[in-house]
Design goal:
By secondary structure, the chain is of the alpha/beta class. It has two domains: 122 residues, Rossmann fold, CATH 3.40.50; 100 residues, Winged helix-like DNA-binding domain superfamily/Winged helix DNA-binding domain (Arc Repressor Mutant, subunit A). The protein contains eight helices and twelve strands. The strands form three sheets. The protein has a five-stranded parallel sheet with strand order 2-1-3-4-5, with helices on both faces. Strands 6-7-8-9 form a four-stranded antiparallel sheet, with helices on one face. Strands 10-12-11 form a three-stranded antiparallel sheet. Strand 1, helix 1 and strand 2 form a beta-alpha-beta unit. Helix 6 crosses helix 7 and helix 6 crosses helix 8. The longest helix has 19 residues. The radius of gyration is 18 Å and the shape is globular. The chain starts with 5 loop residues before the first strand and ends in a 5-residue tail after the last strand. The relative contact order is 0.10. About 3% of the residues have low confidence. The chain binds calcium ion (CA).
Length: 235
């Protein structure tokens, strides 16, 4: 194995911080811990971690300011840790440039899945894996971005232009939640009405075409009040 991938955890609740550190260390990651925002920022600059796990509710600094600050100079994946009561904060954090979020309380497998997605995103940033960007494949769903073709269990699916834009945006960011506003501005442009209705209508049509049972989707999941998350690609 190469040099260990390094992750900084900024979380003021010591038991949660230690739980995360133990889980990640056992998987072979190098973990740095910080219990406050100011110390966290200084560790980001001194230790140069590759991934940041950031609690939004810190005693000394607002987690949002940390995201803003980091995003002014770095593309490092940021995974926000938030409480269940902070739905609006999640949307704000994602729109500020956080990559993903995990809601307390969470288990080890969920945490590790988020980290794997971030690691994949990291290799996309570095451009070290150009091969995997042209085909998305998960379960029976295959998207060929070069040919703009989609199939489910070898059956070709016909999407409208708008439906294809939505699906390919989600697939290129698979495993990550994409907010309603991000989808709307990417698909309809920055001056689009920020009403979600047209997006919901399109998503209902997409699901009817892609999913065996649109009420229990296997490919595109709803993150209520936040956005959509496409199933992680098969590795
Ligand atoms: Ca906290």
């Amino acid at each position: 194995m190469n040099t260990k991938l390094s992750i900084l955890v900024i979380e003021d609740e010591k038991n949660i911080c230690d739980f995360i550190a133990t889980a990640l260390t056992s998987q072979g990651y190098k973990v740095y811990k910080s219990y406050s925002g100011k110390d966290g920022i200084s560790q980001i600059t001194s230790r140069c971690p590759e991934i940041l796990l950031l609690d939004l509710g810190l005693p000394d600094l607002d987690g949002m300011d940390i995201i803003r600050k980091v995003r002014s100079w770095s593309d490092m994946p940021i995974i926000v840790i938030s409480a269940r009561t902070q739905e609006n904060d999640k949307v704000t954090a994602l729109d500020l440039g956080a990559d993903d979020y995990i809601t307390k309380p969470f288990g080890t497998s969920e945490l590790l899945a988020r980290i794997r997605t971030a690691v994949r995103h990291l290799s996309n940033i570095k451009g070290s894996d150009s091969k995997d960007s042209h085909i998305y494949s998960a379960g029976g769903l295959v998207i060929d971005f070069d040919r703009r073709r989609i199939s489910v269990e070898h059956r070709e699916i016909h999407l409208t232009q708008v439906e294809y834009k939505i699906v390919s945006l989600l697939a290129k960011n698979c495993g990550k939640v994409i907010t309603y506003d991000t989808i709307i501005s990417q698909v309809w442009g920055p001056y689009a009405d920020d009403n979600n209705r047209i997006l919901r209508v399109n998503m209902a049509n997409i699901r009817r075409k892609l999913e065996n049972n649109p009420a229990q989707p296997q490919y595109i999941f709803t993150e209520i009040g936040i956005g959509y998350r496409m199933r992680d690609a098969d590795s």
